[in-house]
Amino acid sequence: MSTPAATPAAPFPALPVCGVAIPATGLITAAVAYARAHTSPSTVNHCLRSAAFALVFARKLPPYAGADAEAVVLACLLHDLGWAVGESRALLSADKRFEVDGANLARAFAREHSEYSEAQLQEVWDAIALHTTPSIALHKQPVVALTALGILADFTGPYHPAGAISVAEFQEVVGAFPRLAFRDELPRTLCGLCRDKPGTTFDNFVGEFGAALLEGEEGDAYREQREKNSARNLLLGGLDAVKQYE
After folding, report:
1. What positions does the domain HD occupy (predicted)?
2. CB 3.0-4.6 Å disulfide test: which of 39, 109, 127, 211 passes with 144?
């Protein structure tokens, strides 16, 4: 792999308690700038925390010791491009899940700013597209698994199912990259997806936010649509519909 040259000064806080450092390569520095240009400050900090936690898992869990740290950090930094804000929303599709939008944008970015092979680009794409599906991601390549592990750790900290994140490490990472308004912004973002492109939310966790938090007629209409398009109804309804041809 051809690694971009490091920048003269690392733009990231030191993390001595965690024993890791976010690589300050040209690609990573550019990725942070790209994320800042298109997503909110709290989303950027969430992505930076996720990257730091992913590196902690890579250091502590033997199966991931040889993972490409730059690729892991790149995937974490760009994993929420599907939450683009303001004029940057023009980058997003009208019919794809936010994870797929993010994966597509990240792959295009990496293709332009690095010499990654197509196989490496595909790993970054997989890592982002699958980051909300750990039951699949954890059985793929280390880059994909570590991305999912690191992102989940930002929500669970020391209570992560895989362990490995200590209270001191968690506090250091959150201190370096503060939460800002992430707790309040998250439900607004996900409910916005339920409003703007509901068809991308019916079969995944985003729909849980819409079903629980959208109110009034809007909420009733969303819940009715979600139920109609549930996997149960689609599968059993399909079997009932084709039975006449059997």
Report:
1. 44-136
2. 127
Q: Using an 8 Å Cβ cutoff, are 148 and 134 in contact?
A: yes
Q: How far apart are CA 162 and CA 124, in angstroms?
A: 22
Sign of CA dihedral 179, 185, 191, 195: negative
3-state helix, strand, coil in the chain (%, to 5): 70, 0, 30
Rounded Cα distance between 1 and 67, Å, is 13
Q: How far apart are CA 202 and CA 194, in angstroms?
A: 8
The predicted structure's pLDDT at residue 2:
36
Nearest to 147 by CA among 64, 232, 243: 64
**Spatial distance between the Cα atoms of 70 and 26, rounded to a whole number of angstroms:** 10
- Residue carrying the six token digits 């992913």: 54
pLDDT-based confidence at residue 11 (cuts at 50, 70, 90): confident
* Cβ(76)–Cβ(47) below 8 Å: yes
Q: Please tell me whether residue 20 adopts helix, strand or coil conformation.
A: strand
Q: Average pLDDT for residues 59-71, to the nearest whole number?
A: 95
Compute the mean pLDDT over every residue in the chain, rounded to the nearest whole number.
94
